[in-house]
Amino acid sequence: MLHHAPRALYIHIPFCTNKCHYCDFNSYILKGQPVDDYLTALEREMERTLSATPAERIDTVFVGGGTPTVLTPPQMERFLASVRRLWPLHEGTEFTMEANPGTTDPDKLAVMFAGGVNRLSFGVQSFDNGLLQRIGRIHDVDDVYRSLDNARAAGFGNLSIDLMFGLPGQTVELLSDSVDKALALDLPHYSLYSLKVEENTLFHHLYEKNQLPLPTEDEDLEMYLHLIGRLQGAGYEHYEISNFAKPGFESRHNSTYWRNEPYYGLGAGAHGYLERHRHVNIKGVQPYIDAALERLPRLSGETVSEAEAMEDFMMVGLRLLDGVRGADFERQFPGRTIEGVFGAQLRPLVEGGLLLRLEDGEHGSLPGGTPLRPGQGYRLSPQGVLLGNEVFGAFIGVLDDAIHS
Questions:
Q1: Comparing C-alpha atoms, which of 62, 27, 94, 42 is closest to residue 291?
Q2: Which GO terms describe its biological process (predicted)?
C-alpha cells in the first residue's frame, strides 16, 4: 500500500452536560472535570503525534465528543489556537465541530468562528419535546431554533443536524412532523440515524427488562423509506447510507473514513489510522491526562493486514451511494484488483440485485441527479441500500492468509 501523511484530523472532547439514555460514547459529565488539564494533555498529544508522524497538509478537522461546545469561551479559544498553531491547516480546510443545542451562545460561537471552525453539526435528534425528554436530551425544540439562529448570525453557513428514527414510542407521523420542521430550516446537510441499543446504556438496561417500547423492524424500515423519499424530494443527495446533502456540502471528513483513508485521532478514547496501523487511546480522562504528559497515550494498537484493509475498503466504501472504484482499490493495494480479490463475494450480490456494476464510460447518476464518478466499480442498488448490512457483512472475514501468497 502507498503511504502518505493523513490529511484528516479527529479530536475528541469527552465532556457532556449529561449522559443521554442511548449513548455509549466515551463521554463524561462535565461537572468537576479537569478540563484545562485535559486541554494541556491534548496539546502534548498533538506535539508528540506530529513529531512521530509529521503532517504535510490537513484538509479536514472534526472535533467530536462528548459535546465540544461545553468548553467555555476562553477554553474554546485556547483549544482552537493550539490546533491552528500546530497543524498545517489552509483556507480550504473543512473544520467541523459537533454542538449541542443550548450550549452555543453568541460569545462562544464568535470564538469558534474566529478560531477557524467553519462547519457545525448539531445533535438535534427530534423536533418533538416529549421524545427529546424520553431519550435523555436536555435541550428542547426552542433551543434548536435559537442555536441555529445564533450560528447563522455568527457567520456559519455550513450547518448540519442529526435526526434519529426508531426511537421508543416514535411513529411515522411523529417522524414526519420532525422532517417537516427540519426541512423548513433549509440546511445544507442532514444525518439520519436509526437508534441502536448499545450495552452499558440506560436504554439497554430497559430493553433487557422489556421496558423499551421500540418500533418494529417493519416500522423502522417505513421510517427510513419515508426519510429517503422526503429528503430526495426536497433536492438532497442521498450520498451515504445515513447522510443527505445539497451538492458540494457532503461531509468531506467522514468521507475519509468511508474511503478507508488514514486519519489522525487524538484525545481520550479516540481512534486513529496511520500507515496501516490502528490505535485506540486511553479512555478515562485522568488516565489520559497522566499518560499524555509522558508519552503517546495509547491504550492499544494493531497493524492492519492487507487482507483486513481490503475488506475494510469494500465494507465502508459501499456505504457511499457512489460506490467503490477499481482504480481507487488498485491505488491503495498495488497489484490487486477488486474482482481478483472479491469476485466470489461480488457475483452473488450483483446477481441478487443488491449491487450494481459500473462500467467505464457509464453516464449514470444518483437519485437527485448528481453524476456518478467515472470508472469501473460497484455501488448499492436501491434494494441494496435497504439491506446494506447484508452487503457489508459479505466482505467481513472472507480473506485469509492465502491472499498474501
A1: 42
A2: porphyrin-containing compound biosynthetic process
How far apart are alpha carbons 314 and 384 in whole angstroms?
14
226 is a domain residue: yes
Count: domains in the chain: 2
CA distance 345 to 137: 42
Q: What is the CATH number of the domain that holds 33?
A: 3.20.20.70
Residues 337 and 243 in one domain: no
Domain holding 339, by residue range, is 306-394
Q: What is the DSSP letter of 93?
A: -
End-to-end alpha carbon distance in the chain: 16
Q: Are residues 335 and 198 in the same domain?
A: no
The full DSSP string for 322-341 is T-EEHHHHHHHSTT--HHHH
CA-based angle 101:107:111, to the nearest 5? 100
What does the alpha-carbon distance between residue 325 and residue 318 come to, in Å, rounded to a whole number?
Answer: 10
pTM of the model: 0.91
Per DSSP, helices labelled H in 300-396 are 306-317, 326-332, 338-351, 382-386, 388-393
Residue 121 β-bridge partners:
98, 160
pLDDT in tens, the chain (405 residues): 445 789 999 999 999 876 565 565 667 788 889 999 999 999 999 999 999 999 999 999 999 988 899 999 999 999 999 999 999 999 999 999 999 898 899 999 999 999 999 999 999 988 988 888 877 777 889 999 999 999 999 999 999 999 988 888 788 888 999 999 999 999 999 999 876 756 676 665 675 676 666 767 788 889 899 999 999 999 999 999 999 999 999 999 999 999 999 999 999 999 999 988 999 999 999 999 999 999 999 999 999 999 999 999 999 999 999 999 999 999 999 999 999 999 999 999 999 999 999 985 555 556 655 666 666 899 999 999 999 989 999 999 888 644 543
Quick one: CA torsion of 202, 205, 208, 213, rounded to 10 degrees? -30
